[in-house]
Write a structure and sequence with these properties.
Layout: H1 10-34, H2 51-70, H3 84-104
């Protein structure tokens, strides 16, 4: 509704008021027929939380964060060291693979 009430004539204002009254009567009658007044009840805003509920939620959140922050990070696992014999064996296998690939002409640079 982009029409301002100040721009309406008195006749239009009376007609709008009569329509609004008729709508209210019809909504009330509909509520009586359906057996609930919820059809005519305006929708309210979001429910507010009590101060004690907010305090409980805040305390629980703080406790969770304290528990998380209080734990130290797990110690890093020591790196496994490869024996010299294992390194030599892997090196020999890699050299053999490269020699085979070069002989077959499958090298990519």
């Amino acid at each position: 509704m982009n029409i301002s009430l100040a721009n309406l004539s008195p006749a239009h204002l009376r007609r709008a008021a009569n329509l609004k009254e008729q709508i209210a009567k019809l909504e009330k009658e509909l509520g009586n027929i359906l057996g609930s007044a919820s059809a005519t009840t305006p929708i309210k805003g979001p429910k507010r939380m009590s101060a004690s509920a907010r305090a409980r939620i805040s305390a629980a959140a703080k406790a969770r964060w304290a528990k998380i922050k209080g734990k130290a990070k797990p110690a890093a696992k020591p790196k496994k060291k490869m024996s010299a014999a294992a390194k030599a064996r892997l090196s020999a296998l890699a050299k053999a693979r490269w020699a085979k690939a070069k002989k077959a002409g499958k090298t990519r640079l």
